[in-house]
Amino acid sequence: MKLLAGIFLIIRKMILFIFLVLACLILEGGSTVFAQENQKDTISKKLSTEQIDQSDDAAVLNNKGIWYLQQGKFEQAKEYLSRAVVLYPNDYLTHYNLGTFYGYINDMQKAIGHLNKAVELNPQSDKAFSALGTFYLRENKLQEAERSFLAALNINPDNINALFGLMNVYKNENQFDKALKTGNKLLAVDNKYQQLHLVLSNLYFLKNDLPNALANAKAEQSLYPEAPESYYMLILIYNKTGEKMKSLEAMNKLKELLINNNSEKNTKSESDK
Question: Which CATH superfamily hosts domain 21-31+46-182?
């Protein structure tokens, strides 16, 4: 029982963690010189690195900060994104990017503050509302998270991150039927959304619908065979159904993946030195 409880906790933490990754991935480019994707190559040819470093253009500051964030250089990222907010305090995108940065480094109070400012400045940004809901959920402020996700979906009913977030809000509130309904909406929009089938499997497991729990765990495993999360879910299900050999196979595969992942991290750390 202790093993199963531990696995269940691990699954929940993994689902919450993916929100931070998603929020980081939806960082937008700037609103001026980098507004159009096809302008980027032209502008990069015109501006030298020194000129970019000295530029006070909002878009340049935003994109430079995002680039440093993607490189894991947090101090430099903070410097550029903070400068953008100071120079352009009424540009929602500067608050959006800085808020997302703070969420990424787990400073939720500042993340939520800047994202609230972003939606105040641009109440039509579904991405900003979705990111705000993400960080409210991370803080387990479920009512605020629900309001934010619903606001995002009111603007864009197909916002996949908001649908995924709202599904998790309902799951955490033990409103499993509403969570499944929201999950099925997301399924219709993007049936390959990472961790969607994992959460659906978790929900069906909680409702003791083991066939659907197993089908979704296998779907997640098929889509993302190198991700460990689905194997945690398979272990839970096979233990519940009494299929000990299959549970053991899933556990051995999980151990293999975790060892490989740790080995890759160590290799990367050595190469970065």
Answer: Tetratricopeptide repeat domain (1.25.40.10)
